[in-house]
Amino acid sequence: MAEGALITTQAAEFRGGLPQGGALLALDLGTQTIGTAFCDAGWRFASPGKTLKRGKFGADRDLLAALVRERSVKGVVIGLPLNMDGSEGPRAQSSRAYARNLSAALGLPVLLWDERWSTASAEGALIAQDMSRAKRADRIDAAAAAVILQAAIDALAGGMD
Asked: What is the rounded CA–CA span in Å between residue 155 and residue 150?
């Protein structure tokens, strides 16, 4: 697989790495689960995918590689858990390391996207759908991944960062 694939926090740079567009996969990395979401090749709308049980990186990589093949994914958006003041702590560094490993393994460009408020936004949307607490717990990570992805594709489609 390609080494040195693009990893960036800038939407314009990521967009430049995908001149033909293409379906994207978003990940909300938790300590025990990985929420997934996908968007169409035209970057119009994001939809929640599966919530995967997080394991060792090799197992995660294999599951994600299967999703990439199944959906013809051209790039990955990973939530970057910044502190409220915009600084990076240990969780952000962990997400950056995961992005480096995944990009090298899959040979795909990665956009690290600010995920502050994504879980709160996703939970609010699920509550608005009158979803029970138990169902929300099962779906929150994938819903948060969809919030992250929608914000990223809005920036990609709009030509903004």
From this structure: 9
Class of domain 7-158: alpha beta
Q: Give the pairing of strands 46-53 and 33-39.
A: antiparallel
For the chain, the structural domain boundaries read 7-158
pTM of the model: 0.86
Q: pLDDT 10s per residue in the chain (161 long)?
A: 344 589 999 999 999 999 788 999 999 998 899 999 999 999 999 999 999 999 999 999 999 999 999 999 999 999 998 888 888 889 899 999 999 999 999 999 999 998 866 666 666 665 666 666 666 566 767 888 999 999 999 999 875 44
